[in-house]
Design a protein that fits this description.
The protein is mostly helical and 106 residues long. It has two domains: 37 residues, no CATH class; 42 residues. It is built from five helices and no strands. The mean pLDDT is 86.
Amino acid sequence: MPGLKKTSKSDWERVKQDAASDAPVAYDPETDLYDPNDPAQVEAFFSTAKVVRKPGRPKAEKTKVPIAIRLSPEVVTYFKATGAGWQSRIDAALHEWMSEHPRKRA
């Protein structure tokens, strides 16, 4: 589907099939906020809903400069294995190195 992230784990074929079917959406009055099969309840719910946006990345990260860098496969494998945010951890490691090796002024 256009405009969707390539990393999406949604089964879009199933979503399209479900949307095209006339089967009622499962509804549990004990836990659900409204009956999705009742247009009046859907309208009432969304007419009072408030859109809440998640804050973006901290400003400090927005000032990072995108570059291309060549690293050894071992370094990349090591940091990628630590999960999401591995590039930020490489940045932190380089900051630590910089603090331990102050630049000599000419």
